[in-house]
Design goal:
Aminopeptidase, 183 residues, alpha+beta, 28% helix
Length: 183
Amino acid sequence: MFKNYKMIELQVDINIRLKEIEIADAEQIFNIIDIGRIYFREWLPFVDDTTEVSYTKSYIENVTGETSNDLIFTVLYHNNIVGLVGLKDVDLGNKKTEIGYWLTESYQHKGIITQSCKVLIKHAFSEMGLNRIQLKAATENFKSQRIAERLGFTFEGIERDGELHSHGFVDLNVYSLLSRDNH
């Protein structure tokens, strides 16, 4: 397994750092989701099921457990959690993963997620030895698609009915970045 027992922290810039998620973050993460429920609901399928802090605790236990293939970080802006960014389904055998993220609405348009993803991508390629990172964004989620483009990802195609949301299935644009693409 790629995880060790030392919590990983990655400095993004003077104001932003990534800290590996832990159970102590559950209440704050739940509150962020609860307050921003209407905003998050459009693109995050788990929001409607996140009705109490126990759901968030369960999620954190799953992604930090010994058998998890995920590496999830809180995004700290001035030491306050403002979102999550992470690698899911890390496949060391094939040296690939998928990157995902979400950010509180009031902290958008500051470059926080783009910068955080750059640092996490560098970590994935240089420290974890991965070769491919995939990013999926709903075909109507233009903000997320712009992040993929800013990060230098290549559009590969559309995964039809790729994700089930409360309002039905959505198609996903699939992007990839290879270690040789990352200059």
